[in-house]
Specification:
This protein has 385 residues and is mainly beta. 13% of the residues lie in helices and 41% in strands. It has a six-stranded antiparallel barrel with strand order 1-2-3-7-6-4. Strands 10-14-13 form a three-stranded mixed sheet, covered by helices on one side. Strands 18-17-19 form a three-stranded mixed sheet, with helices on one face. The protein is flat, with a radius of gyration of 23 Å.
């Protein structure tokens, strides 16, 4: 959980007297080295992308230190990371307090310096710390039989980043024996292991590596957006009423482990043994299914998301630095049939530009969801590797 409180921040915003503030810190060895002022750009986050977040930002050097010959040191892509923040400055004059929410920690993938009579302008691009693991190992890795999957994931990642700590769930399942040749792409292999138990692997806004169950990371809505409160400037709705799958098959590549989850409710419109018939979703195939129970867990989780029509919503509004992907929000837009509808944030573009008001709007795309018979919304997950 974040020290930043979105609810408290929205209260400050409603009261007025605040000024939007952004900054980008340069980190060396994970520790602060320098601070730049952000003048534009954004942090883009996609929950199910291999590398969850990226940054592209325009900056200025408020002290001019980067113009004195140390640019090569501070912005050396082999040594530095960049950490953007968005927040507010508030309080009475003379006692102004700045509060910031982290937007991620990024490895530097490129930088551009433009030195003109008006000053030095800097543009940086980066990807989150998953970038560290996008490559092969120095040596082959053997994982013994009976190794908990969460330990196997850490073993894989540690081949590229010794001493790594992972904030991990306990899966209750084991794997092995496994032999990974040195040519293995570490991040892809670790994500495949995570997917075998319906899990996901990512780096959060503080740069921490996390292994958790796929799906919403908040049980209750963390924010509510409504037109009347000025929080929605635009909303787009897309509905897909194509085939609804009512059977999910999960199996190992050799077919020796196989589990089938079906809609077996006789009162359901999509009852698998009724007029609707059996309509299987694309088979979930994962080499790490080691028991029928494990495969069934993945199949049942997927089936929950398949029983209903698909709806997708996107919206734009004033930036909320406390918002993040994989969190539940509610939307209130009655003319689109949204009455405090709970949805899961799938993609988020958070601007770093500030200016009049809060500057550029944030852009949010909520996860495609299945609207079930009960009216509940289920996000559509990619549970296969």
């Amino acid at each position: 959980m974040w020290w930043w409180s979105p609810a408290a921040e929205r209260e400050r915003t409603a009261r007025g007297g605040h000024t939007v503030a952004t900054k980008v810190e340069i980190l060396h060895g994970g520790a602060w080295a320098y601070t730049l002022k952000a003048t534009g750009g954004e942090v883009s986050t996609t929950s199910r992308s291999s590398v969850r977040a990226s940054v592209d930002c325009a900056l200025v050097d408020p002290t001019g230190a980067l113009g004195r010959g140390d640019v090569g040191d501070l912005l050396n892509a082999d040594e530095c990371e960049i950490a953007p923040y968005r927040g507010v400055e508030h309080g009475p004059l003379g006692q102004r307090v700045k509060e910031y929410a982290p937007l991620g920690v990024f490895g530097l993938t490129g930088h551009e310096l433009d030195d003109t009579p008006d000053g030095l302008t800097i543009r940086l691009t980066g990807q989150d710390r998953a970038l560290i693991y996008q490559g092969q190992m120095l040596n082959a890795l053997t994982i013994p039989r009976g190794t908990p999957i969460e330990i196997a994931v850490q073993m894989l990642l540690s081949t590229r980043n010794p001493g790594l700590t992972v904030l991990s769930m306990r899966t209750g399942f084991t794997c092995g024996p496994l032999l990974y040749p040195s040519t293995t792409n570490v991040w892809d292999a670790a994500r495949e292991l995570a997917a075998s138990v319906g899990g996901t692997l990512f780096h959060d806004r503080t740069g921490q590596c996390v292994f958790a169950m796929a799906g919403p990371q908040s049980d209750d809505p963390v924010a509510s957006y409504s037109e009347s409160a000025g929080q929605l400037t635009a909303v787009k709705k897309k509905v897909d009423t194509d085939t609804i799958f009512n059977v999910v098959i999960a199996e190992s590549p050799d077919g020796r482990i196989r589990a089938v989850a079906s809609d077996l409710d006789p009162t359901s419109r999509t009852y698998a043994k009724g007029r609707y018939g059996s309509r299987p979703a694309p088979t979930l195939v994962n080499q790490h299914f080691h028991s029928v129970d494990q495969a069934m867990q993945a199949a049942v989780a997927r089936l929950d998301y398949e029983l209903g029509r698909t709806e997708t919503y996107s919206f734009a509004g004033p930036p909320d630095a406390g918002q993040y992907v994989e969190e539940v929000v509610t939307l209130y837009r009655p003319r689109l049939g949204l009455f405090h509808r709970g949805l899961v944030v799938d993609e988020l573009d958070m601007p770093l530009q500030v200016g009049d008001g809060d500057g550029a709007p944030m852009s949010v795309r909520c996860r495609s969801s299945r609207l079930a018979r009960s009216g509940r919304n289920y996000p559509v997950e990619e549970l296969s590797a």
